[in-house]
What we know:
Structural class: mainly alpha
CATH topology of the largest domain: AhpD-like
Largest sheet: none
Strand content: under 5%
Amino acid sequence: MPRIPLVTEAAMTPAQRQVYDAMVNGPRKSAPVGPLAIAMHRPELAQAMSNLGLVLRFNSSFAPRLREFTILLTGRFWDCQFEWASHESEARKAGLTDATIETLRAGGNRFEAADEQAIHDYAIELMTRHFASDAIYQRILAIFGVPGAVELTALIGYYAMIALTLNAAEFEIPEGMTPPLPMRA
């Protein structure tokens, strides 16, 4: 059970209803779940989060494999069970190898694909040191260019926000599902 009650459809304010209807009838084609369900307590926030998510997830310039790699990496960094559970199958469909997924799950730091390694190194530096070294930043620029560096940074930041929102609310994975991530000591 999450720490906060979720907004029910029956008890929505007009502003919540407007955001809910936009999600159900928009590209998501579903009621708000996970972090968006939590954010419905502030409908303006839920709408803004949804809009940014639509850009970063559904209109990304990144190949789906790299987008899902970044999402799993960020979810793993923050030990977010729900984020991982929501994206592992998407990552497989997008072409991430079993070896890459298991390395991410274990919190490993070595990847065969150069683009995955560069994203890993960049994201981990940003999340642990709060800055990226010039050498790693230059690798990102060489692979993805300036627009790619901007989008990658936003992707990491967005999914960190999602993970923190889910973790703060203690939003659980679906009932009966085994937690997909081992907890770190």
